[in-house]
Amino acid sequence: MDAPEFSCGLLRHDREAHVNEQSCTHIEDVVTVRLPHQRACQECVKVASTWVHLRTCQSCGMTHCCDSSPSKHASQHARARAHPVVASAEPRERWLYCYPDDAIAPY
Ligand SMILES: [Zn+2]
Ligand SMILES: [Zn+2]
Ligand SMILES: [Zn+2]
């Protein structure tokens, strides 16, 4: 089974192996996981760019593109707004990622 999401620079480990799977206080603070309102990067849409995968910010609910995408809007947004945690906005993916801690946790 191909798992294209793990070619994304964000995720270096095979989920099956549970390698380096860890949580952090930011991820533990997420009580209800925010899901994408729309399956599109809100910044890419403005500039007519494209994306590879989508991530939804757990602080404000905005959806942005991942680090495999040309514009890396999700990590830009996380740094600019100090919103640490995103959830995958891809169908069938259920995990949270914290940028400052480089932590990933399934939900
Ligand atoms: Zn964290
Ligand atoms: Zn984008
Ligand atoms: Zn945000």
Folded structure, characterized:
- The chain is an alpha+beta fold.
- It has one domain (22-106): Herpes Virus-1.
- Helices cover 18% and strands 18% of the residues.
- It is built from three helices and five strands, in the order H-H-E-E-H-E-E-E.
- The chain has helices spanning 25-28, 42-47, 73-81; strands at 54-57, 63-65, 85-88, 95-98, 103-106.
- A five-stranded antiparallel β-sheet has the order 2-1-3-4-5.
- Strand 3 (85-88) and strand 4 form a beta hairpin.
- The two termini are 21 Å apart.
- Mean pLDDT is 86; it is low at 1-7 and 12-20.
- The structure holds zinc ion (3 copies).
- Residues 24-27, 84, 98, 100-101, 103 line the site of one zinc ion.
- One zinc ion is lined by residues 57, 59-60, 62, 77, 81, 83.
For the biggest β-sheet, the strand order reads 2-1-3-4-5
Alpha-carbon distance between the two ends:
21 Å
Number of helices, counting only DSSP H or I runs of 4 residues or more: 3
The global form is: globular
Radius of gyration: 13 Å
> Regions with pLDDT < 50 over 5+ consecutive residues?
1-7, 12-20
Helix content: 10-25%
CATH architecture classification name: 2-Layer Sandwich
**Count of separate structural domains:** 1
Strand content: 15-25%
Can you say what the CATH homologous superfamily is?
Zinc/RING finger domain, C3HC4 (zinc finger)
The CATH class designation is: Alpha Beta
Number of strands: 5
H/E element order: HHEEHEEE
